[in-house]
Amino acid sequence: MLIRGLNVVVLNEVTGAVMSSRWYDTYESAADSGLLVKYLKGLRQGRIVCFAVKVRVIKLLIFVLIF
User: Fold this and answer.
1) 39 CB contacts (<8 Å, ≥6 apart)?
2) How much is the CA Rg of the chain, to the nearest whole Å?
3) How many structural domains are present in the chain?
4) How much is the pLDDT for 16?
5) How many CA atoms lie within 13 Å of 14's alpha carbon, on the beta-carbon side?
6) Which residues contact 66 (CB under 8 A, 6 or more apart)?
7) Which end of the chain is more exposed for a tag (fewer CB within 10 A), N or C?
8) What residue numbers bound the domain in which 36 lies?
């Protein structure tokens, strides 16, 4: 995958199988920051979440997680 921005892969915590993969261009899109937070909050507790960064992700990344 590795498209510019933040690449997210979610794995099953028991089998290690890939459950989903998405990317968020948090460098150019402020909306993607909100979508990322919404996506992460919607994941089932216990899932393994892997992040990969390509280029920069900080310019518009607003990372607010409330547990």
Assistant:
1) 8, 22
2) 12
3) 1
4) 96
5) 2
6) none
7) C
8) 5-54
Beta strand 18-24 with 48-54 is unpaired
- Stated as kind and residue range, the H or E segment containing 53 is strand 48-54
Residue 34 included in any domain: yes
Q: Which residue has the tokens 């498209």?
A: 3
Distance CA 18, CA 27 (A): 25
Determine the Cα–Cα distance for residues 32 and 17; give it in Å rounded to an integer.
25
pLDDT in tens, the chain (67 residues): 446 778 899 999 999 999 999 988 877 777 888 898 899 999 999 999 998 877 655 555 544 443 3
Residue 32, token pair as written in the block: 């993607």
